[in-house]
Write a structure and sequence with these properties.
There is one protein chain. Helices cover about 35% and strands about 25% of the residues. By secondary structure, the protein is α/β, with parallel strands linked by helices. The chain is globular and about 55 Å long. It starts with a strand and ends with a strand.
Amino acid sequence: MILTVTLNTALDITYRVRSLRPHTAHRVTEVTERPGGKGLNVARVLAALGHDVTVTGFTGGATGRALRDQLADTPGVLDALIPVAGSTRRTIAVVDTTTGDTTQLNEPGPQITSAEWAAFQEAYEVLLRSASAVALCGSLPPGVPVGAYAGLIRAARAAAVPVLLDTSGEPLRRGVAARPDIVKPNADELAELTGSHEPLQATRDARRRGAHAVVASLGAQGLLAHTPDGLWRATPPRRVHGNPTGAGDSAVAGLLSGLVEHLPWPERLARAVALSAATVLAPVAGEFDHLTYETLLDQIAVTGDATAA
């Protein structure tokens, strides 16, 4: 079982409009709702790849009930979310169907009490006993300590469970110091962490800060991986136009599934890039276009070598 942690779950709402213009009224042509937050998106992609997944984190209020009702209809995903008094947040994505551009509005999330945080930590340690890997994903809701991911990483390491961290800012900085197996920042998050805007140098710096392996998302240019086993660059054959929301989460699913399947790094990276590109063509985060994924998988260019990086 793969465990994904989404401390700040969300009900993702996607509006589609023909043209998004400031200071005007818009007629929405389509509305979709999905259980969201980065770890839940990762979980749906992992389940679509054939893996059993358990999701945990916080959920509450009417929005949380709607999220859990929809999650119950997702094959291969087990709900182990922790109830809280506050209300689960919503995220609003407005897709301009003419340009393909997406505007994102993210609510902050519920206030988590110390008792709720303690209940989560207890449940998390129990879930680790049957986990083959864990992904810690996304932002922290109000009330959760900024060093939360560092503590969860240490707990996973004590249980001998490989852990991937995908977050940003101070939670990323503190989490990296706890020595996760993989961190997956994008270029901006990596630059904020290390102070370097040169991706190769920045990945080296992130490893020196504690990350066992660093896989940096470079947008349409693919992934750069700096690992103890080697240094690789994985690039798609062409730019895919569409809704990029959730593409990074699909890359995490590719990396995590490759880890538990014991694939070599080049194959993990090819899977992650193909899934990411195929997600751009899907209508909502947490889904991917299967035909595009299968077509692209053999077309991803992976360059580099397996010498110690």
